[in-house]
Amino acid sequence: MARPSLLIAIWVCAAVARADPMLERFERWMGRHGRLYAHAGEKQRRLEVYRRNVELVEQFNSMNNGGYKLADNKFADLTNEEFRAKMLGFGPHSRTGHTTTAPSTMACADSGLAEDYSDLPKSVDWREKGAVAPVKNQGECGSCWAFSAVAAIEGANQIKNGKMVSLSEQELVDCDTEAVGCAGGYMSWAFEFVMKNRGLTTEGNYPYLGMNGNCQTPKLNESAVTISGYRNVTASSEPDLLRAAAAQPVSVAVDAGGFVWQLYGGGVFTGPCTSELNHGVTVVGYGETQGDTDGDGGETPGQKYWVVKNSWGPEWGEAGYIRMQRQAVAGAADGLCGIAVLPSYPVM
Ligand SMILES: *[C@@H]1O[C@H](CO)[C@@H](O)[C@H](O)[C@H]1NC(C)=O
Ligand SMILES: *[C@@H]1O[C@H](CO)[C@@H](O)[C@H](O)[C@H]1NC(C)=O
């Protein structure tokens, strides 16, 4: 029989545990995301990280400043440092915290001024046209560069050939020797690999593993889709990015390292972020908010945005997407989070 003092101690602990509403919320969150921890100490540590993130989310949302929301999403048990180390991957060594700034490209002096963009549609959504595969998940591997390039190739192929063929990121991770797999790469390297290899095989033929593997060389000549080249959009010109995105999905690099990206929960994202590029994503459209259509307070009307496909699974953001403010600051040529600094797209 247990000693009475021990029983009292257990009873007290249980009572304290039940009295912590954050623990209950955390356990519901764990259930929702299928999360298990190796031992009680780890769970306790994660609870404290979760608690700080929930406080951050609630504080941010109560200010209701930018109109977008944060959420205790699937990254809510990670510190921002852990999140940065796991979920990015633009540029080699990005996992060590190194970020890539824009190469010193001369922007054409007349870009966005001399040319008229009034011929472009007011909004474009390549998802509605079947040119965007379902949102994928890079896992804990810095392979965003592969996902960004593949989404742009899938889009270009569907637009040209009328067929959506989901393509293999793992082939790029394993076989593109210029890049360093899960330790990062550039979309331009991915496009160059596809050109040299005369294509990429399907997702089904070379499925994603989320870790570095040996290149399965027999699959290199089982290409389903190829490209003839790729182009860089004029650096730091949102109007030129608009023209490119009106024609097809476009690979872009952004700064996605902040807690506002980590915990993004929907709405038109307005920052804060920098132009220190560390993550590859894909612009799959653009538009403008219509405002309150259902009487629930809704969004501020007339906010211009980019529709951006991410590779953190459909549970993140707006079903895996983020809408990012377009023409955020007049005259700020880099675009929000550097979205216009280094865009590129494949040519079929
Ligand atoms: C693919 O390459 C392998 C050698 O790596 C070769 O044996 C095979 O015949 C090739 N298949 C096609 C369809 O070209
Ligand atoms: C695109 O830009 C990258 C980075 O500046 C550069 O390395 C690459 O050669 C450019 N590619 C083309 C096709 O212009």
UniProtKB/TrEMBL annotation:
User: SUPFAM superfamilies from the xrefs?
Assistant: Cysteine proteinases
Q: Which Gene3D superfamilies match?
A: Cysteine proteinases (3.90.70.10)
Keyword set for this entry? Disulfide bond, Signal
- Residue ranges of domain Peptidase C1A papain C-terminal in the record: 120-347
Identify the residues that the record assigns to the Cathepsin propeptide inhibitor domain, covering every copy: 26-83
* Top-level taxon: Eukaryota
Q: What residue stretch is flagged as signal peptide? A: 1-19
Q: Where are the transmembrane segments?
A: none
Name the CDD domains for this protein.
Peptidase_C1A
What's any GO biological process attached to this entry? proteolysis
**Protein name (database record):** Uncharacterized protein
Which organism encodes this protein?
Digitaria exilis
